[in-house]
């Protein structure tokens, strides 16, 4: 249970810092929570498809109709993950994978979440730094 308590402390410390930042992090946290939920939903959908595919190939039961119903669901969920990832990246200065929403370190060429190659636009060093208040 010690790890759980530590986790809760970290979360509450983060939340306190967020409150100091005029509550802007609460929106990011909501988005991140939604992203986590959507990723779980996507994984469950893949698992369902896997079970149906196994049932079809291994036992010869016709699961084509059920599988066909789940495939567009995968597309919808992946699209939602992309949109949430983009929304989070907009809220947060950190870089997130556009494909799966995983947070990326600046030296990562490939996403640790989905393996997507990361292309970084060259940031011009000459541009004026924008202060947080202007955003
Ligand atoms: Zn990714």
Q: Write the element-wise H/E pattern from the N-terminal end onward.
A: HHHEE
Strands side by side in the biggest sheet: 1-2
**Count of DSSP helices?**
3
Query: Which hetero compounds are present in the coordinates?
Result: zinc ion
C-alpha-based Rg, rounded: 20 Å
- Supply the helix-strand structural class: mainly alpha
Strand fraction band? under 5%
Query: In one word, what is the shape?
Result: elongated
Number of strands: 2
Nearest-integer average pLDDT: 80
- Share in helix: 55-70%
Distance between the termini: 41 Å
In the predicted model, the low-confidence regions spanning at least 5 consecutive residues are 123-129
Largest sheet: 2 strands, antiparallel
Word description of this protein:
- The termini are far apart.
- The protein has helices spanning 2-20, 24-59, 64-91; strands at residues 95-96, 103-104.
- A two-stranded antiparallel ribbon has the order 1-2.
- Residues 123-129 have low confidence and may be disordered.
- The longest helix has 36 residues, at 24-59.
- The chain has a domain at 22-95.
- With 135 residues, the chain is mainly alpha-helical.
- It contains three helices and two strands, in the order H-H-H-E-E.
Layout: helices, strands, pairs:
Layout: H1 2-20, H2 24-59, H3 64-91, E1 95-96, E2 103-104
Antiparallel strand pairs: 1-2
Bound molecules: zinc ion.
């Amino acid at each position: 249970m010690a790890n759980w308590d530590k986790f809760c402390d970290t979360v509450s410390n983060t939340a306190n810092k967020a409150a100091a930042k005029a509550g802007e992090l609460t929106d990011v946290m909501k988005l991140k929570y939604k992203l986590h939920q959507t990723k779980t939903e996507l994984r469950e959908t893949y698992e369902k498809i896997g079970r149906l595919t196994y049932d079809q190939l291994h036992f010869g039961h016709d699961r084509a109709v059920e599988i066909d119903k789940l495939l567009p669901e995968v597309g919808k969920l992946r699209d939602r993950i992309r949109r949430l990832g983009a929304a989070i990246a907009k809220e947060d200065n950190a870089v997130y994978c556009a494909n799966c929403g995983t947070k990326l370190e600046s030296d990562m060429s490939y996403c640790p979440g989905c393996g997507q190659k990361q292309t970084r636009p060259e940031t011009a060093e000459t541009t004026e730094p924008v202060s947080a208040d202007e955003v």
